[in-house]
Amino acid sequence: MEIDQLIRSLVVSARRATQTELQEIVTHVAQRPFSSRLMKINQRLREELSACNVQPTSPQLPSVEVHLLKRIYVEQQWPHQTTVVQFEMDLHQAVLHRDVQIWTYLRLGEHHVGFLAPSHVQNVLKPEAFIFVAYCADYSTIKTGFQANSAEAVFNGAFERLVQHR
User: Fold this and answer.
1) Within its chain, how far is the Cα of 66 from the centroid?
2) What is the pLDDT of residues 47-60, one digit of tens each?
C-alpha cells in the first residue's frame, strides 16, 4: 500500500499501526519536503517581524519560509542563521529519532501523522523539550514543525480521530 494512503486509512479507521507500518511511515516522512505553497504573511506576523527589524521581501512566501521566520524571530526556537535546508533537516532528524512518539489524526479535514521527539535544537533563547512535526498525507508534505514542552501542549484541541501509535 502507498504510504500516504496507509496514513489516510489509519486516520479513517482509527486503527493502530503495526511496527512495520510505523517504520515505513517514518522512512517516508523523513524524506518528504516541507510545504512550499505560497502563504500570505498576515498582519500580526508582519508586525512581529517588524519589531525584530525583519522585513519580508514579499507579501507572500513559501510556507516553509513563513514557518521558519516565525520559529526564528517570534518564537525564538531556532538560531538566526538557520536556513530552510537546515530547518527541514532538523525536522527530519526529529522524525527519525529513536524515541519519537507518533500519532495519526484528522485536522481541518486533512489526514495527518504527527511526530514528537526530544529536541536537539537547544542553543536558542526559548528552547523546549521536544520538536513536533506534522505531516499531511493529503499533500505529501510536512505542514509544520516547532518546539513544544509536551504532547499536551501540541494536542490541545481541534484534532479528530487522534490515535497514539508509539
Assistant:
1) 13
2) 999 999 999 889 99
Query: Do residues 151 and 100 make contact, with C-beta atoms less than 8 angstroms apart?
Result: no
Q: Which residues are bridge partners to 106 per DSSP?
A: 111, 160
The range of the structural domain enclosing residue 94 comes to: 3-37+82-164
Query: Residue 33 carries which side chain, given as an amino acid letter?
Result: P
**At 144, which amino acid appears?**
T
- pLDDT score, position 15: 95
- 15 Cβ neighbours under 8 A, 6+ residues apart: 9, 163
Q: Nearest-CA neighbor of 63 among 101, 37, 82, 43?
A: 37
- 3-class DSSP state of 120: coil
Instruction: Indicate the number of domains in the chain.
Output: 1
Question: Three cell numbers at 148?
Answer: 513544544
Q: How far apart are the first and last CA of the chain?
A: 21
Residue at 63 is within a domain: no
Tell me how far CA of residue 39 lies from CA of 11, 36, 67, 87, 151, in angstroms.
26, 9, 10, 18, 27
Query: Are 63 and 39 spatial neighbours (Cβ–Cβ below 8 Å)?
Result: yes
